[in-house]
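Deliverable D4.2, example record:
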Amino acid sequence: MTRRFEELDWQQTPIGEVSLRRRLDPTLDVEVHEVKLGDEYLMSSLFTVAEIELARLGLAPLSDGPLDVVVGGLGLGYTAHAVLQDQRVRSLVVVDYLDAVIGWHRKGLLPLSAELTGDPRCRLTHGDFFALTADAEGYDGGRRFDAILVDIDHSPRHLLHPGNGGFYTAAGLRRLAGHLRPGGVFGLWSNDPPDDGFTATLAEVFAEVRAEVVAFDNPLQRRESTNTVYVARSSP
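Output generated by the structure prediction step:
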């Protein structure tokens, strides 16, 4: 029997107090996993549609594999899991800044943990995604990838840390594009509506750019909510 509420873990991290909670939602009669940073909600298993769409939309433009993929931001694991559902994927490197989050999955505390840690194609890496992007060695010894999918900040303008801002400039995006193979794809999740200014910045770097609005049911607010997935492809 599931408890109505349980704090599965709490840790002090470089960005503040992070906690993983599990609760039974009495209205929906479903088990919900949530991550909080201090008093702020970072993610919830109630809202995973756009995270999954980030993987689907990001991999859709690519031809037959094998594909090598990076996911920036592990979280509850829904984007990484969706990537692994694509049989073209040969390897997946998942980078997360918080060792605590990787630890949750290695301890099997989340619904998708066993599938992620048990898939030989998937490697969970503790590191600063933005620092690795700026490094010539990148995410794995300098090798290039077919897709880099990112779900870390709330949006290009609503950042978890001010230091992340340089990534969303033309110079930062050029550094990221340098880790892609020709024709490779950069995908980005955002909690905000499409941002024309950021789309224009993407167009300075990538050959093809689009912003997809992803709609999903919000049972807490009893209405439809939306996120944005940006998909940018480099020149073949």
